Amino acid sequence: MNKIITYCSLSALAFFAGCAAPSLQYYTLTEGNPAPKSAQTFTPTNTSIIYIARVTVPDYLNTTDITTRNGTALTHSVNGRLSSILSVGATGLITNLLTDKNPNLWITDEAPVSPPAYQVRINIRRFDLQAEANKTGTLNLEASWSIIPQNDKAPVQKQRSSFVVQGSIQTDNDIVKLEQNALTQLTNNINTTIQQLR
Question: Which is nearest to 180 in space by CA: 160, 159, 193, 165?
């Protein structure tokens, strides 16, 4: 009798193990294989430091979930996650892209020891990826940003932008790529404002 019970227990364990969900796949918003660059030595000065403050996003999106929207309902991926919460990942991506576009400036998302020449504050008010038919999605992004100078007599630059990005959402990787594309477009708009500082 004991042998029968043991056999049944082992069979049950094997069944549930076979039905176990696949392991989670983690994704990052930043590119894993950036183009190689020549070695550079750069000594920042107060006139060249631009600090990117943590990007703010809607509370319900500031998680590691990969999320799509269907009307008022939110769907979270069961197989994929972001490697960091959205606000952290978005800040890192935007900082990296701005650094690549402005090699003569010291752009950082780490709080500098001395006051930076400028502080950039970015608020993403809307970052909704609406699921459409045929595994496609429409991402609506609305954002505003302020560039605050250390010199309190200089004007604060304020801008806002809204646009739509469309693409495949068949896989979690597709969704992350679509979000990357939207944040890259936002970065291009922010960089236009930074160029006006010169």
Answer: 165
Strands 118-131 and 136-149: antiparallel
d(CA 198, CA 50): 13
Q: What is the pTM of this model?
A: 0.84
The per-residue pLDDT string of the chain (198 residues; one tens digit each, 9 = 90 and over) reads 544 444 445 455 444 444 556 689 999 998 755 555 555 555 666 568 999 999 999 999 999 999 999 988 999 999 999 999 999 999 999 999 999 999 989 999 998 888 899 999 999 999 999 999 889 999 999 999 999 999 989 999 999 999 999 999 999 999 999 999 999 999 999 999 999 886
List CB contacts of 168: < 8 A, sequence separation 6 or more.
Answer: 135, 136, 137, 174, 178
How far is Cα 55 from Cα 166, in angstroms, rounded to an integer? 23
Q: What is the dihedral of CA 72, 77, 80, 83, to 10 degrees?
A: 30
φ, ψ of residue 175 in degrees (nearest 5): -65, -45
